[in-house]
Amino acid sequence: MDLSKAKWRKSSLSSDSGDACIEVAADASVAGIRDSKDPDRGAILLNRTEARALAARIKNS
């Protein structure tokens, strides 16, 4: 995934100050997760199956 042109999103529940937020971006096969405070540090890349499993685990915790 070429992250340089990715459209990164964060939760609408996040504060405008940007504290402690993660951002996500995805294409047809890969999802990226990064720290909104330090976006140049890089991202964790997950395939779609891994991303769905992570989202389900977060929702159920």
Automatic annotation (TrEMBL):
Residues 6-59 form the DUF397 domain. It holds the Pfam family DUF397. InterPro entries: DUF397 (IPR007278). This is DUF397 domain-containing protein. It comes from Actinomadura namibiensis.
